[in-house]
Amino acid sequence: MKKYLFFILLVTGVMANAQTSTESEETDSQKRMTKFSNAKRHGLSLDVIAGLVFPAFNPRYEYTLNKYSSIGADVNINFDNENGTEIMEKFSFSPFYRQYFFSKEDFGAKGFYGEGFLKLYTYENEYDFYFNNYRETKTESYFETAIGVGIGWKWVSNSGFLIDINGALGRNLGFADDEDKRDFTGRFGINFGWQF
Question: Is residue 21, in this structure, part of any structural domain at all?
Answer without folding.
Answer: no
